[in-house]
Design a protein that fits this description.
With about 80 residues, the chain is mainly alpha-helical. About 40% of the residues lie in helices and about 10% in strands.
């Protein structure tokens, strides 16, 4: 079992390449500088929509985002 941070770190390049192919004009120039943010609970899309529907997205702790890191200890990446 791995953490969310380790999982994102393992597939970082895949996520970055996919994003650049989906939005080549906006993200193609920024390849290598992508920032990935996830909710603490891990299901960002559902949590954000629920927090927005409740009207208190800024105050909802489950909605707060955490910046992911490209290289995380235990993720199998060479550069930690």
């Amino acid at each position: 079992t791995i953490t969310l941070h380790q999982g994102i770190s393992r597939i970082w390049n895949l996520i970055e390449e996919h994003a650049c192919r989906l939005r080549p004009v906006e993200l193609g120039r920024e390849y290598g500088t992508l920032e990935i943010w996830c909710s603490k609970e891990g299901d960002t899309e559902i949590l954000s929509s629920q927090a927005t529907a409740k009207g208190n997205a800024a105050e909802d702790e489950a909605w707060s985002l955490v910046k992911m890191e490209k290289n995380v200890l235990g993720s199998g990446s060479d550069k930690v």
